[in-house]
Write a structure and sequence with these properties.
Largest sheet: 14 strands, antiparallel, barrel
Strand content: over 45%
Distance between the termini: 9 Å
Number of helices: 3
């Protein structure tokens, strides 16, 4: 007898080494990431991304769904799944006077799920949690003195989420799961005040760097009922506990004189003067998050699903994140999606094996600028492409969204996200006999 080598687990280790630094790079350039923890990532992999970001009630033996840890138990006792992918971003920003555009492509995630006996399954992976990236210039003219003043705001970084979870089939129709999530990241921000018409004036710059890390837990539940061969429904719920992140703040304010110093060449003197510098430890609190989901349809052919989330950022003390004109607000979001597969057992016609997906979402973000709470909404669509007659597949999704407003001197942002992921299916603990 010969035990089959676990090729997928080896691939997972190699990809995690390669993908982790790439995921942590800047993958957004939104001016709204100046506030709070930045832009919170869209959840889900290729299938969910094409279905409006849904996933709480999706239960598919051939897909890895980390959005609800109860879904890990959907696979059979010998199936191993590896999912990895990348995303491309296009952001278009507009004000009443100016416009700008930004493109980027980056690795997005890697995740692995393996069975543990007949009733348990494990899931682990690396996904983005939030991203910070912006470069803003504001110009002012003092009509009284004629002086020009330029304000610069720059920021980059983000937070990664490492998750490891287990799921169990508690009863015939019920599965439960738990994820241990570890958040780790760095966010740096810079503000500068410059007088372009007066080179003798000092440039004032303020730097802030935040180092973030800690663990929190999330729980999930799924109840699935199949009626005959033509109808199923799944009810789902998730709850992420409140998390207090260990956060180290490094702050510094400097003055830089750009004009001539008048010192002789043999004297080494810096033109940068530290006004203040300090290091402090302050908690950043991520509030508890609840979600409910529903999926109905025809097994193997049609899935119609919807999710709802709420998270009250206003109820927690995050004074360390506050900036002028910004506040935290309760966030809510609704997601809906449809997946249709003409005939997953068809012998002819590759188009019959493909999965066609469409969806949409509406969000009230946790960022409030003045009296305006940031709105985010969009549509999604994509396809699942099976790799031959295997359970492996490629998934392509495209998101078209918009957020912000042109009112009150704010910024309107239109964006597109192209998601490409691969789900590899393999058999583990499978024995072959040889004569």
């Amino acid at each position: 007898m010969h035990r089959k080598k676990n090729r997928i687990s080896i691939l997972a280790v190699l990809f995690s080494i390669l993908v982790t630094p790439a995921i942590s790079q800047v993958n957004t350039y939104s001016p709204y990431t100046r506030f709070g923890l930045g832009d919170l990532a869209h959840g889900g992999f290729g299938q969910s991304a094409a279905m409006g970001g849904t996933g709480l009630a999706i239960r598919d033996a051939n897909k890895l769904n980390y959005m609800n840890p109860a879904a890990y138990a959907a696979r059979d006792s010998m199936s191993v799944l590896l999912d990895f992918g990348m995303t491309g971003y296009m952001n278009d920003y507009r004000t009443n006077r100016f416009s700008n555009r930004w493109y980027n492509i980056n690795f997005h995630h890697i995740a692995l799920s393996i069975p543990v006996g007949n009733n348990f399954a494990l899931g682990t992976g690396i996904v983005p949690y939030s991203s910070v990236g912006y470069n803003i210039k504001q110009e002012y003219d003092d009509l009284g003195t004629g002086d020009a003043i330029d304000y610069y705001y720059r920021g980059q970084g983000g937070i990664l989420k490492y998750f490891a979870g287990i799921s169990a089939k508690a009863f015939e129709r019920v599965s439960v799961g738990v994820n241990m999530n570890y958040l780790l990241g760095d966010i740096s921000r810079e503000r500068a005040l410059i007088f372009p018409r007066n080179p003798g004036f000092a440039e004032t710059r303020a730097y802030e760097e935040i180092n973030i890390s800690n663990v929190y837990f999330g729980f999930g539940l799924q109840y699935r009922e199949v009626i005959g061969e033509n109808f199923f429904f799944t009810l789902a719920a998730t709850y992420d506990m409140e998390a207090k992140l260990n956060s180290a703040f490094n702050n510094a304010i400097t003055n830089k004189f750009v004009g001539s110093s008048g010192f002789i060449d043999s004297t080494l003197i810096t033109n940068i003067f530290d006004i203040t510098s300090d290091v402090s430890e302050q908690d950043i609190v991520i509030p508890a998050k609840t979600g409910i989901g529903l999926a109905v349809g025809i097994p193997g052919k049609l899935t119609v699903t919807a999710d709802y989330y709420q998270q009250d950022w206003q109820s927690v003390d995050n004074s360390s994140l506050y900036t002028e004109g910004f506040d935290l607000a309760p966030s809510r979001s609704m997601h809906a999606g449809v997946e249709y597969t003409p005939d997953f057992e068809a012998f002819r016609g590759y188009h019959n094996l493909m999965s066609y997906r469409v969806g949409g979402y509406m969000k009230d973000a946790y960022v409030q600028v003045g009296d305006y709470q940031l709105k985010d909404y969009g549509i999604t669509f994509g396809v699942g492409l099976p790799l031959g007659r295997t359970r492996s597949s490629m998934n392509v999704a495209f998101t078209m969204g918009t957020r912000g407003t042109l009112e009150n001197n704010l910024i309107k942002e239109n964006y597109g996200i192209l998601t490409f992921s691969v789900t590899l299916h393999d058999l583990w603990f499978f024995k072959r006999k040889f004569d």
